[in-house]
Fold:
Amino acid sequence: MTIRPASDLFNRRVIRLALLLGLIMQVFALVGSASAITAEEMLDDPGLESRARALSKQLRCLVCQNQSIDDSDAELAQDLRREVRTQLVAGASDAEILASLQGKYGDYVLLRPPVSTGTYVLWFAPVGVVLGGILLVVAIRRNRRPDALSPSPDTAEEQSKGDVVGDARASGQTPMTSNILRGPVIIVAVFGFAASLGLYLMLGRADLADQPLAGRQAEIAAAKTAQDSRSEVLANALAEARQTVANAPDKVEGWLRLAMAAAAVGDNDSELDALRTALDLTAGDPSIKAMLAEALSRAADGQITIPARDLIDQVLAANPNEPRALYMAGLAAYQDENFADAVALWHRLYNQSRPDAPWMATLGQNIVDAAEKGGLPVPDVTASPDQGMLDMAAGMSDEERAEMIEGMVATLAARLAENTDDIKGWLRLARAYDVLGRPEDMVGAMIGAADAVPDNARQQTMALEVMITTNLGEQFLDDAPRLLARLEALAPDGLELLFFKGHFAKLSGDLEAARRNWQLLLERLPADSPLVANLRARIDQL
Structure:
């Protein structure tokens, strides 16, 4: 039987207790929390939303202890999440966003601060503390002699006394002094090591910055005040919009204002009700249908639902160039993993949009993403020359700017006159003319684009549509038959072909041909199509 000294038993209990405390500290340090992001914050584009979530996990909440903005419910964390998504939509890269926020808030905003001369101690000092604690424990254990087995209590007691006396003599201490000091030294060493390790895991890891909340109270208070002020403004706008529709329930503008105010505060139910009322008052206006489809998708966390898809189809049947419907049609195709259709729809919207349209940066990224996921050739979505010209001219006077832009557009037009097959050049020229407010030249450039690719039905359609939407069809009656003949050969069953033929027949004075084509179109349209009433009215006017 082996008998341990009472001090040894006490020391082992202390060691077990210290290790248990260290384990508890580690457990608390590793506890996580669920994501705090709300559905209203999420972006419709799944690719951008995935990047936003990844960035949010790398950024620290400014008012929380060791919590990412992805996990935090604090209003300041919501502001940072919105700022990240705003920069993503604007086309910024992940590195640019992190650098922007780091420059604004310092290394504190990064959950993993960079290793630099200023953070060497933060990164490597804890390692030294841990190693020092381990060496201290090893040294103490080596100084303790193992107890020998004894066949009898008497022999064990004599051997124990001899060991104690020998140790005491070697150290210049009495046996009583040695026993008194050994226990506290071990207790202090082990508890100090466990406490250091626990505090390091909770508060001192290299991926944690300090928590200088006391020095940031003014900044935090200012941000909170700004957020409260913004919330109050939005709430007041919603209340005013409700009062407006209460005073004039038959005014479409009031209901649209209410829908926008409700969307700003995330009140999906009120937004949907307002848009449905506006739709009833306008007898099914396509633009309001597109807004309703977007609201339905937003209420479904960005998914293009079946009711939304039905509305999108109706809008595109009435107006194939409606931007919101085109974008959501592409998003629906993307969600169905029909990447070819997504690229085609989004690229069509890209080509017909003004270069300064707010959706251009997001649209370009979406096109590239869909093409890459579908293994398709990536279309050219680089900045158009007209946008570059406008950027270069930012510091010029109005006269200098106009002169420079006109000169560059003239140069592009002259080059295309010699290289008529440059489809991309014709489309860029058309956008430049649109920016300059020259619709006739813009239509001419779109006709040039159609002539550059005579076997492309979509390009013939776009040129004919531009003639109609600009009300310049009569000025291009010589060009229309050529485009119509190509479209009839390429897509003889298209409903838009019948409409185009009827429209240009009417402009040419052939009312019988116009009536015949539009009557055929009327027979092929569904009875509930929003185009039916408009087409009947056109036929009656012939």
Residues 217-247 form the longest helix (31 residues). The radius of gyration is 37 Å.
